[in-house]
Amino acid sequence: MEQARQFVSAVLAGFMIGMGATAFLSLENKVLGACMFGVGLFTVVVFQLQLFTGKIGYLPFQKKQYLIELIITWMGNFCGTFLIAKCVQNTRIFTQDMVEKVASMTETKLNDPFFSIFILSVFCGILMFIAVDTFREQQGAAIKVIAIFIPVMVFILSGFEHVVANMYYFSMAQKWSFHTVVLLIIMTLGNSIGAMLLPLYQKGFHIK
User: Fold this and answer.
1) Which among 3, 170, 194, 200 is least surrounded, fewest beta carbons within 10 Å?
2) What is the pLDDT of residues 24-71, one digit of tens each?
3) What's the Rg (C-alpha) of the chain?
């Protein structure tokens, strides 16, 4: 029953990240779009939904069974992003401009060397841990909001790779192939390593 709850929560998290990504695709202003994307992560942390990039950073502090929870989360996130992509594709907001924008985005990712994708994923993982952990640990509404929206804007405007967001973009562009799956695996590894850098530092020096 607990695993079923985790999966449903992960599906909802993926759906919300997809909703933020839909807002990004819908807006011509890239800065404003990056800001609106943050609504997805903000919803995830407020409602404590299961998002892979929000959970993986805490692996060094968890028991072995946490790995199962992470796998369930990853799968649920994928289902959520795929679901919202299919929903959007059947609405009037799925315009030719959106089609061309997401096609261009995914083509860039698919043509990028694996090592580049990995590095950009590590950078994104660092930012996601900063966002989620600051929201969890700090007091005050203002710092919590800033902690979510600023890292999200940085990773989007910088072109860093977020595995869950890319699940949505690939689904929207209908660019699924063996190569796409390999890229998602590389992004997953990069996001994971990046998210665990600060926790491992904290654990190694008994900061937390």
Assistant:
1) 3
2) 999 999 999 999 999 999 999 999 999 999 999 999 888 889 999 999
3) 16
Chain CA centroid to CA 11, Å? 13
What tokens does 112 get?
């990028």
Q: Does residue 109 contact residue 166 with C-beta atoms inside 8 Å? A: yes
Please count the other Cβ atoms lying within 10 Å of the Cβ belonging to residue 95.
Answer: 12
Find the distance separating the first CA and the last CA of the chain, reported in whole Å. 31
Higher pLDDT, 23 or 60: 23
pLDDT for the residue numbered 25: 97
The span from the CA of 124 to the CA of 163, in Å, is: 9
In 3D space, the residue among 63, 61, 51 whose CA is nearest the CA of residue 6 turns out to be 51
How far is the CA of 56 from the CAs of 35, 41, 52, 116, 129, in angstroms?
23, 15, 6, 21, 8
- Which residue type sits at 168? Y
Q: Cα angle at 193 between 3 and 85, to 5 degrees?
A: 55
Rounded distance, CA 161 to CA 122, Å?
8
- Please state the separation of Cα 157 from the chain's center in Å: 14
pLDDT at 185: 98
Distance, in Å, from the CA atom of 55 to the CA atom of 3, rounded to the nearest integer, reads: 15
Report the distance separating Cα 43 and Cα 64, nearest Å: 28
Judge whether 17 and 41 are in contact, CB under 8 Å: yes
